[in-house]
Design brief:
- The complex is a heterodimer of chains A (263) and B (339).
- With 263 residues, chain A is α+β, with helices and mostly antiparallel strands.
- Chain A has six helices and ten strands; from the N terminus they run βαββαββββααβαββα.
- A four-stranded mixed beta sheet of chain A has the order 8-1-10-9. In chain A, strands 2-3 form a two-stranded antiparallel sheet.
- In chain A, strand 6 and strand 7 form a beta hairpin.
- Chain A is elongated.
- Chain B is mainly alpha-helical and 339 residues long.
- Chain B has twelve helices and two strands.
- In chain B, helix 4 packs antiparallel against helix 6, helix 10 packs antiparallel against helix 12 and helix 11 packs antiparallel against helix 12.
- The radius of gyration of chain B is 28 Å and the shape is elongated.
- The mean pLDDT of chain B is 94.
- Chains A and B meet through strand 2, helix 2, strand 6 and helix 6 of A and strand 1, strand 2, helix 2, helix 4 and helix 6 of B.
Amino acid sequence: MPTTAFLTDSTLCIGCKACEVACKEWNGVAEDGLNWTGHSYDNTSMLGHSTWRHVKFVEHAPEPGHGGNDPELPSWSFSSDVCKHCENAGCLEACPTGALVRTEFGGVYLQPDVCNGCGYCVVSCPFGVVQRNPDDGRAFKCTFCYDRQKVGLKPACATACPTESIKFGEIESLRVTAEMRMEELQQRGMKDATFYDASNTSVGHTHAMFIVRGDPKSYNLPPNPQTPAVHMKKAWKASAMGAAMLLGGALLAFLADRGRGDS
Amino acid sequence: MSGRTPDADSERKLVEIRNQAQREGKIQSQGMRISGAPFPLASPETGYYGIPLLKEPSWTWEIPLYFFAGGASASAAIIGAVANYTGADRKLVRDARWIAAAGSVISPPLLIADLGRPERFINMLRVFKPQSPMSVGSWTLMGFSGGAAATAFADFIQQKYGPSLPMRILENAGQLASLAFGLPFSNYTGVLLGATTIPTWNEHAGELPVHFGMSGLSAAVGLLELMGNDKSRALQALGLGAAAFECYEGWRIESQQTLANRPLKYGTSGGIVRAGGLLSGPVPLALRTLSILTGSRKLRRAAAASAVAGSLLTRVGWIAAGHASARDWRVPLEIPEKT
């Protein structure tokens, strides 16, 4: 089976949110409130148990050539966010039930029939993606449309995207696509285009890659995401030391006391 | 009628606006500062409108209580086993076993109640994953609970019906199991928090297990003393050691100036951590020292109560700090605090 990936090219995104709607439509994810946030046109705010695709609206001071040429209207960038399907996935390693698995397509899939809602994946995701649904009790996140991939279809979001901002395909060829696109954007003078796939971090690389304009930080994409595994050795070492201190201390205290008769 | 009283300034401003409108056809003045301004921005300095990047833990009140009960009972099991092996006072051994057994009965329901799907707790036991502290912890809890409960049960039966070989075998096997599983169970919760993406927790990954282990020890010693074992010199020594370590840990937390460390010092979570630290470290250390100097059992019991309360507050505080840390988008985005 080929390892598949997303390449979300925000320079092509028009902020229509078709991906958000298509995702909910195909996966049967519940509506999660219609609230005004005041954050540009983004009223979804973040990925979560009921939001597996999320279009970010990065709005800033007018800059001709960046999301329009009107010198008086704010400049906009849109980027559709999604579970990163990390190569070294913190959630997957943390899951004590084996509910989170790696599929034959390389994605990270949460089996809802196994999850018991312990919530440990929630604090193990460096991107804040997976979340426990308080009404249902289980954790949920993007499935990478495992069911659609199994029958040879593209994920719902990529299928619905009208501008092909969300590209889906084999990971190596998508990397080449991304490289060519980055070159093209540079040539066109879009010097601030940035490729993001978290390679060079302990996450390894992500199976959801992004091209965004400007600093990825504006999109809440962390510059140095870490998988919890990097802290594991240190923590278990401390655990061994703590256990030794406990046992040694108790032995010392009671042996010393024994020699001195009744206290 | 309420409202604004016109003054020279307000009227001058209105005339100025009128003149500007006549002169230029539009108003350049910035006007009123809108309530709530400045509005959140999406930028490399402010992240994505200041919306948290990480998710807060979904755990509820059961988890800090589980940490407390598990830590205290694991330490009690170790104290009980060591006291038994070294031939210490029978009452102390028995009390320690009862605390361990009580913890073994309370802990699993607490952990299970926190699950989103409690009826599926058993799924924890369908795999063993060494790379998951939650998996290791669940198995350790099972082993510890079985061992501690068996020890107390066999002890009780023999106390009531006289010694018997099968019960002695059960007692010894249970004691060995509660000791073997009790050692990791006493502090794995520190690994559980340390090996996550929550900055406040993982920044302390290398010390949290020892901290939590010592906190559990000080709670176990305190509980044993409150149960009447307040003449044991061994317990006094262990209590002193744990309190001294908690003083050191408190100093470490207080002296660390990183952004990720802030929830341990400031805000509600910082208040709880600091209160827990005081009650676990300096207070019992001073009271214990005084009780040795004066021979006062009252002071020693006060130290014991303080240590128990301190241990509970420490667990509550660290979980609360994790929530505050997850809300702080600056740390994962590596954005320094606004100057």
